[in-house]
Amino acid sequence: GPMKFRDVVIFSGQRFTVELEVFEYDPPTSAASSFEIRGVDVVARYSLADNDGSTKLTQSVEASGGGTMP
Q1: Which of the 8 DSSP states describes residue 64?
Q2: Calpha distance 50→15 (Å, rounded)
Q3: What is the average per-residue pLDDT within 26-43?
Q4: Where does 1-70 have alpha helices with state H?
Q5: CA pseudo-torsion sign 17, 66, 25, 49
Q6: 47: which strand partners?
Q7: For residues 46 and 59, is the Cβ–Cβ distance under 8 A?
Q8: Which is it for strands 30-37 and 14-26: parallel, antiparallel or unpaired?
Q9: Is 66 helix (H, G, I), strand (E, B) or coil?
Q10: Of 11, 23, 33, 46, which is most buried, counting CB atoms within 10 Å of its CB?
Q11: Spatial separation of the C-alpha atoms in residues 20 and 37, rounded to whole Å
Q12: Reading across the β-sheet that carries 30-37, which strands appear in turn?
């Protein structure tokens, strides 16, 4: 099943403790997690790729919902 853990997220200088759920995990190339903050649903996706001998990290964040960000 999905992994869940708590994390601290900082938006506009304010700290929030959120419960993240890792719902996709495909080591060593990608992962995705979701959490809710002030009525906004957030999905973060991460991917790792070879970049001529180094590693390129790509992150995307999607937010939806009717809440308000601080």
Answers
A1: E
A2: 34
A3: 93
A4: none
A5: negative
A6: 30, 58
A7: yes
A8: antiparallel
A9: coil
A10: 33
A11: 10
A12: 3-11, 14-26, 30-37, 40-51, 54-65
Kindly report the number of other CB atoms within 10 A of residue 42's CB atom. 19
Taking only the tens place, the pLDDT of each residue in 38-48 is: 888 999 999 99
Q: Which two tokens stand for residue 68?
A: 């308000």
DSSP 47: E
Contacts 24+ apart (CB under 8 A), 37-41: 37/9, 37/11, 37/67, 37/69, 38/67, 38/68, 38/69, 38/70, 39/65, 39/66, 39/67, 39/68, 40/64, 40/65, 40/67, 40/68, 40/69, 41/65
Residue with tokens 């009717």: 66
Summarize the chain as % helix, strand, coil (round to 5).
0, 75, 25
Phi, psi of 5 (to 5 degrees): -160, 165
